[in-house]
Amino acid sequence: MYAVVIDDFGLAPSLRELPEPVPGPGEVKVRVAASSVNGFDRLLAAGALRGIFEHRFPIVLGKDFAGMVAAVGEGSPGSPPAIRSSVWWRRPTRPTAAASANT
């Protein structure tokens, strides 16, 4: 998958290929169709939220997105695969704003 990431606070974002995430217990994986970069992402990238959330670099930007449920983790209360979904929050240490394609 490709994602827009930062490698440290204050650095410019870059597009990078990352391993495809696998949903853990209670999690849902959404194949992203549209995403935004908003004020939260700007604050996060600048380091203004340091100490408020756990951060692991690279940080994937893009908090709000819409797409299709691609997989569900064990015991997930979420939607089954192939259901349209929108997300407005996620765990700060899990990737979003990412695109994935099979070739």
UniProtKB/TrEMBL annotation:
<protein>
    <recommendedName>
        <fullName>Alcohol dehydrogenase-like N-terminal domain-containing protein</fullName>
    </recommendedName>
</protein>
<dbReference type="InterPro" id="IPR011032">
    <property type="entry name" value="GroES-like_sf"/>
</dbReference>
<dbReference type="Pfam" id="PF08240">
    <property type="entry name" value="ADH_N"/>
</dbReference>
<feature type="domain" description="Alcohol dehydrogenase-like N-terminal">
    <location>
        <begin position="24"/>
        <end position="76"/>
    </location>
</feature>
<dbReference type="InterPro" id="IPR013154">
    <property type="entry name" value="ADH-like_N"/>
</dbReference>
